[in-house]
Write a structure and sequence with these properties.
globular; 11 helices; alpha+beta; single chain; four-stranded mixed beta sheet; two-stranded antiparallel ribbon
């Protein structure tokens, strides 16, 4: 998963959830149409009038029932008051306290480090996050790629985090320059992706679901990972800027990207007060 500069719209996910809730409430108004008979029998099936209905036809009634019930539980509970959400806030507080004790992350110390030492400092961050979230820490690889827009990337196949030492962030500042905030935000974003993959994989295997921190969240990540939207390329921006912005919006507001951004921003705010 790649990490490129964001242009966030904070209410996007809220609007999506409101639309899903409205679709669920309209379900009793569905039309019933005759479907093609299978194996010599006559079958009737609701016409798919929403994305929820289409998903139901694709995966079957039993799986859909479990999924839609999980969605309802997620929507009915106020996120800030759910046990999982409160546990996440406690974990972020714990992580921030640990990172504040890493001397290398202090701005006056960070700017004295070379790139190799900065990579060591960020790997130290990963080990602290591992202790808090009980999640294996992916190795960090720092090297150079030509695309300065590419700040970081997580590979689940190889299980590593990549950061581009040629990248720029917040204008023309170097990602691995004098400001540790930029580097920590990118690293935390990609580390969160590794955590999302692990949680989604556990949720997909019934024997490991007891090890999932937030089943509703893991379910949404699992669905998203199967249909992950890559960010559009710069060429499209030159050819069709409207379409580029539409695809970029779809990329940055999908569940795994929105969550990784939120996690990184919240962690940085707690560590540096920004």
């Amino acid at each position: 998963m790649t990490n490129v500069p964001y242009k966030p719209e904070e209410q996007a996910l809220k609007r999506i959830e409101e639309q899903q809730r409205a679709e669920i409430q309209r379900e009793p108004e569905r039309k019933v149409v005759e479907a093609k008979p299978a194996s010599g029998s006559t079958a009737f099936r609701p016409e798919p009038t929403s994305e929820n209905e289409k998903f139901k036809l694709a995966v079957g009634d039993k799986q859909f029932g479990a999924n839609i019930e999980a969605q309802r539980r997620l929507q009915e509970a106020r996120p800030a008051e759910t046990p999982a959400a409160m546990k996440e806030q406690d974990a972020l507080d714990d992580a921030a306290r640990r990172l504040q004790h890493i001397a290398w992350l202090k701005p006056e110390e960070w700017r004295k480090l070379d790139n190799e030492q900065k990579a060591v400092a960020l790997n130290t961050v990963g080990r602290e996050l591992q202790e808090v979230y009980h999640h294996p820490n992916p190795p960090l690889i720092v090297s150079e790629r030509g695309d300065r827009r590419l700040q970081g990337e997580y590979s689940d196949d190889d299980y590593w985090i990549f950061m581009n030492r040629a990248a720029e962030a917040d204008g023309e500042k170097k990602l691995l320059g004098d400001d540790p905030v930029l580097a920590l935000r990118t690293y935390a974003h990609e580390w969160r992706h590794s955590y999302q993959f692990e949680q989604a994989t556990r949720w997909e295997k019934p024997q490991f679901r007891n090890l999932v921190d937030d089943p509703d969240q893991a379910m949404r990540w699992s669905w998203n990972i199967r249909d992950y939207k890559e960010p559009p390329g710069e060429t499209l921006a030159l050819q069709d800027y409207t379409r580029y912005m539409q695809e970029f919006h779809a990329y940055e507001t999908q569940p795994v990207e929105a969550d990784a951004k939120r996690f990184a921003d919240e962690l940085v705010r707690r560590v540096y007060g920004e």
